[in-house]
Amino acid sequence: MENKTNSSETKQMSGELTFSDKVIQKIIGFALADIDGLLTIDGGFFSNIAEKLVNTNDVTTGIHTEVGKKQVAVDMDIVVEFGKDVRKIYDEVKEIISSEVSQMTHLEVVEVNVNVVDIKSKEQYQEESETVQDKVSDAASSTGRYISKQTSKATKKAKNEAQARTEPRVE
């Protein structure tokens, strides 16, 4: 039996493929992880504090995208390492974003805007990151000990009160 496909017999299937901003932001975040001289993509003061408080690895922090049906525009703030060629880092960022987004989604990256918000030595950046994390860990530890003590006190008090209520008040 011969299997012939006649164009009039073939049904056209309709549908659409779209991408959420977060998907494009993740592609970019993962792609930029190993660029020499790029210390971090900065999401601003509050997101950095939140990131360090929760110790999250959210690669989308600080990456803003506008995603259309065929094109993508990207904006981000970065912190670069002192002594590195910022123009070279910018060119590499653009190339990697364009390549990875295009390869994975077939969307065209039409714009990449990078704002350098700070420049730090690698040691300074690591020290500041560790200092915030250490302070948060220490605070969490001492808060935990305090809450444990207060819970213990409250439990003893509740037991004593419950015992007092179960004992007869009159003889």
Task: Characterise the protein shown here.
There is one protein chain. With 171 residues, the chain is of the alpha+beta class. Helix content is 50%, strand content 20%. It has four helices and four strands. Strands 1, 2, 3 and 4 form a four-stranded mixed beta sheet that branches. It is flat, with a radius of gyration of 28 Å. The relative contact order is 0.13.
Number of helices: 4
CATH superfamily of the domain at 21-127: Cation efflux protein, cytoplasmic domain
Order of helices and strands: HEHEEHEH
- Low-confidence spans: pLDDT under 50, at least 5 residues? 44-55
Please give the largest β-sheet. Answer: 4 strands, mixed
In CATH, the topology of the domain at 21-127 is named: Alpha-Beta Plaits
- Assess the beta-strand content as a share of residues: 15-25%
- Mean of residue pLDDT values: 80
Distance between the termini: 103 Å
Q: How big is the Rg?
A: 28 Å
Which class of secondary structure composition applies to the elements? alpha+beta
Sum up the overall morphology in one term. flat
CATH architecture of the domain at 21-127: 2-Layer Sandwich
Query: What is the helix content?
Result: 40-55%
Q: How many beta-strand segments?
A: 4
What would CATH call the class of the domain at 21-127? Alpha Beta
Pfam families: Asp23
Biased composition (Basic and acidic residues): 158-171
Family: Belongs to the asp23 family.
Protein name: Stress response regulator gls24 homolog
